[in-house]
């Protein structure tokens, strides 16, 4: 989160631009931008928005490579809110990955 403070330096060079984030498709990967966005807004910068195009591609292309998890995937609903329209799809992915009988078609067909 310390890097958010450097946005002022960047914006002085290039002007204000939207801040888009793309990271890991896991709970910490969603918590990071939520917390960074709160810090950015607190410093007077724009909110951190999700790079939904990249997340959508990851969901489309990564399904075949996803591996089922035997342990629970714990996440906070507020961490997924910033994904906007993709939140239900990610929630469904986490649910499927938690099942012992995993079928990649479950995600595609839901």
Number of helices: 6
Average pLDDT over all residues: 76
Q: Kindly, what is the distance between the CA atoms of the first and last residues, rounded to a whole number of angstroms?
A: 35 Å
Structural class: mainly alpha
Helix content: 40-55%
In total, the number of strands is: 2
- Outline, from the CA principal axes? elongated
Uncertain spans: 100-110
Largest sheet properties:
2 strands, parallel
Strand content: 5-15%
Summary, kept brief:
The chain is mostly helical. The chain is built from 6 helices and 2 strands, in the order αβαβαααα.
What does this structure look like?
By secondary structure, the chain is mostly helical. The protein has one domain. It contains 6 helices and 2 strands; from the N terminus they run αβαβαααα. The protein has a two-stranded parallel sheet. It is elongated, with a radius of gyration of 16 Å. The termini are far apart.
Key structural traits:
mainly alpha; 2 strands; 110 residues; 51% helix
Per-chain topology:
Blueprint: H1 7-14, E1 19-21, H2 27-42, E2 48-50, H3 52-62, H4 77-81, H5 87-97, H6 105-109
Parallel strand pairs: 1-2
């Amino acid at each position: 989160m310390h890097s958010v403070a450097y946005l002022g330096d960047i914006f002085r060079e290039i002007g204000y631009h939207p801040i888009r984030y793309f990271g890991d498709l896991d709970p910490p990967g969603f918590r990071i931008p939520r917390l960074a966005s709160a810090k950015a807004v607190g410093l007077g910068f724009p909110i951190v928005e999700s790079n939904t195009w990249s997340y959508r591609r990851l969901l489309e292309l990564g399904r075949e490579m996803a591996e089922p998890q035997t342990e629970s995937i714990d996440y906070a609903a507020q961490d997924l809110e910033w994904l906007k329209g993709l939140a239900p799809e990610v929630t469904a992915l986490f649910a499927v990955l938690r099942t012992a009988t995993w079928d990649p078609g479950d995600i595609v067909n839901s």
